[in-house]
Design the sequence.
């Protein structure tokens, strides 16, 4: 069989190019599966597949039918829902892959919290509410501060901190409005997962600072690829990600504790193979798991990582999926330089006209790249309702301090021009 893989990539994804470049470098044939028909379908027969993302079982049947003519060695999803479809497709095709049950739990905050609690892994205390609950009544029985969130969305979408009863009721109402939007819930919670669109998770607020771990699991053994520090405090009421800096400045002992915690979290949900992206909070009580996703880091943030000579994170993920050697690539990771990425949040709702000052930002020392990923004249929405960043900036230098300073200086060069939305 040829080394043909299926990449499940929604049309809104940022990282299509990174995976395609990695596949080309490895000589791998790629089938791009998306929620829309691809232009290249008529040029490269069998090279694309339009899936019905509104029905997971139907999408898997489409993949199986496609694979009868163009056999596959692996299926990979680049977001939570795509990872679940990939696991289901591999199961149907008899392709070695991580457990579908584990991948489902990794993408569902309720299932993750339950598994972590059962395994004794530190995480937030929680309770589940229906969107039909009375928010003011529920607010009276809540300890503050707390965090309300949907159980299935990612990238901090719909995540809101509440410090009192009034804030709780407002947050509940906003999340409920988000969940009843068909464009939000429909493509992600089809079939047996439909109840997720009617659930709101209420968690205790965990103080402390955050880190993010990028790794690969092989037979349950975690290989840490990178540990990111997040210099900006993430205290709410919304939780837009901004700076990721690597390598981490934390002590070796603390880094080992973080790796052990992620290993325990993966074990708790039964995740044994493939990429893992974990978010953790750390305070004087220890390391707490916020997320443990069965995928690699989102957006184009992976560009900040370098392994060996020209080896990307996406190449490592593809190598692992195909059973190709990985260890030698990771061993040569360039650790003498620090790298960082700044995700540019949408500052307010409206129509994006332009982002000024990009040339000035690129001229800042140690800045490698400035990417604005939303085109002009596009309606934009900030968190907690929004689901996209304006773009990304990358820097590299001799220390974490140099990288962080460069990114902040470059950010100050930018001026985001957004017109107020027309009255509805």
Sequence:
């Amino acid at each position: 069989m040829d080394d043909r893989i299926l990449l499940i990539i929604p049309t809104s994804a940022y990282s299509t190019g990174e995976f395609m470049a990695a596949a080309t470098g490895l000589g791998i044939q790629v089938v791009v599966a998306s929620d829309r028909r691809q232009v290249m379908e008529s040029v490269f027969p069998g090279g694309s597949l339009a899936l019905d993302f509104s029905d997971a079982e139907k999408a898997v049947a489409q993949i199986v039918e496609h694979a009868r003519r163009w056999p596959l060695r692996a299926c990979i999803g680049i977001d939570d829902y795509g990872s679940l479809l990939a696991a289901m497709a591999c199961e149907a095709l008899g392709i070695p892959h991580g457990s579908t049950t584990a991948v489902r739990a990794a993408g569902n905050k309720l299932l993750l919290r339950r598994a972590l609690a059962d395994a004794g892994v530190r995480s937030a205390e929680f309770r589940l509410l229906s969107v039909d609950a009375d928010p003011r009544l529920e607010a009276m029985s809540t300890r503050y501060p707390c965090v309300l969130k949907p159980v299935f969305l990612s990238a901090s979408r719909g995540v809101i901190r509440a410090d009192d009863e009034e804030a709780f009721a407002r947050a509940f109402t906003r999340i409920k409005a988000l969940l009843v939007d068909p464009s939000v819930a429909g493509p992600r919670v089809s079939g047996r997962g439909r109840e997720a669109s009617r659930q709101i998770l209420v968690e205790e607020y965990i103080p402390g600072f955050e880190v993010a771990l990028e790794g690969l699991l092989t037979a349950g053994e975690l290989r840490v690829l990178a540990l990111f520090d997040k210099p900006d405090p993430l205290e709410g009421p919304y939780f837009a990600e901004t700076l990721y800096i690597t390598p981490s400045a934390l002590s070796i002992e603390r880094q080992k504790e973080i790796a052990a915690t992620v290993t325990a979290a993966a074990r708790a949900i039964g995740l044994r193979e493939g990429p893992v992206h974990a978010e953790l909070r750390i305070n004087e009580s220890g390391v707490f798991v916020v997320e443990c996703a069965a995928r690699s880091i989102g957006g184009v943030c992976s560009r900040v990582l370098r392994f060996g000579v020209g080896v990307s994170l996406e190449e490592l993920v593809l190598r692992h999926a195909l059973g190709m050697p990985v260890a030698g690539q990771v061993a040569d990771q360039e650790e003498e330089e620090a790298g960082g990425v700044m995700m540019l949040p949408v500052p307010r709702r409206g129509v994006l006209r332009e982002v000024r000052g990009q040339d000035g930002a690129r001229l800042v020392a140690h800045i490698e790249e400035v990417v604005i990923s939303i085109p002009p004249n596009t309606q934009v929405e900030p968190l907690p309702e929004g689901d996209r960043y304006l773009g990304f900036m990358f820097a590299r230098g001799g220390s974490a301090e140099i990288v962080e300073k460069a990114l902040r200086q470059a950010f100050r060069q930018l001026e985001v021009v957004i017109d107020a939305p027309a009255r509805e």
